[in-house]
């Protein structure tokens, strides 16, 4: 099974794209709703939460995991890959989202001016700057943290004037820098993708993060048949959350466009 992990609702954007682009694989989703939001928390705590989520998904039978959460990917993926996996899960794979999104942005940009929006933690980590500059040293990265967007989106305020106003405010400094490519460096933002596209101006290519991550996974599995052959195929997808609320279930089903059986995950503290 492919495990997909996020702090809450946002990672379902990646799930939706994986189900569309790689429908043959069985997935298991874990949203750590009880401890959302991750965006303003310390790196130490994000590391602990991420390790616990990884333990949970591997114990449930996942053979590889995508950390869809940008905040976790940006801050702790490298440490997980370099220190945690070799010690506790040698041979298992955990992938993140910063690299695939940066690769795609570097491919798409024409003027080498790339904008990134994300949570405070993601922006402060500098992970996108490092990754984009590694892709192409001529790229200039302009970032903005958007801490008020996740609560608005989790609340389901997708079309509200307040949300559009916040988006205008957060995107203005990046538009002023004449970016031509925008990375939505937080899974939640894809849920207001069409509003962002409208506000970002015609000159800006807003990357579709879910599809980008799913295509990158496809490419990875093509290159790693030894991993691909161990993935469970089928449609018995499983959805877990550390706290089940009516609003989460409602928003999750609305985003996925289907009814899901949401189960409660009890995460063991490390
Ligand atoms: N979904 C998380 C991300 O991609 C952010 C939401 C949160 O603050 O927990 O960064």
Question: What tags apply to this protein structure?
Answer:
single chain; 270 residues; alpha/beta; Rossmann fold; 2 domains; 6-stranded parallel sheet; 4-stranded parallel sheet; 12 helices; 10 strands; globular; binds D-glutamic acid
Give a structural overview.
The strands form two sheets. Strands 4-3-1-2-9-10 form a six-stranded parallel beta sheet, with helices on both faces. By secondary structure, the chain is of the alpha/beta class. It folds into two domains: 2-96 and 211-264, Rossmann fold, CATH 3.40.50; 98-209, 3-Layer(aba) Sandwich (Rossmann fold). It contains twelve helices and ten strands. 49% of the residues lie in helices and 16% in strands.
Q: Report on the biggest sheet.
A: 6 strands, parallel
Count up the domains: 2
Which topology of the largest domain does CATH recognise? Answer: Rossmann fold
Count of separate DSSP helical elements = 12
User: Ends: how far apart?
Assistant: 23 Å
Which structural class do the helices and strands define?
Answer: alpha/beta
Q: What is the level 1 CATH name of the largest domain? A: Alpha Beta
Q: Can you write the helix and strand succession as a string?
A: EHEHEHEHEHHEHHEHEHHEHE
Shape: globular
Overall mean pLDDT stands at: 96
Which strand-content bin applies to the residues?
Answer: 15-25%
User: Strands of the largest sheet, in order across it?
Assistant: 4-3-1-2-9-10
Please tell me the CATH architecture of the largest domain by its name.
3-Layer(aba) Sandwich
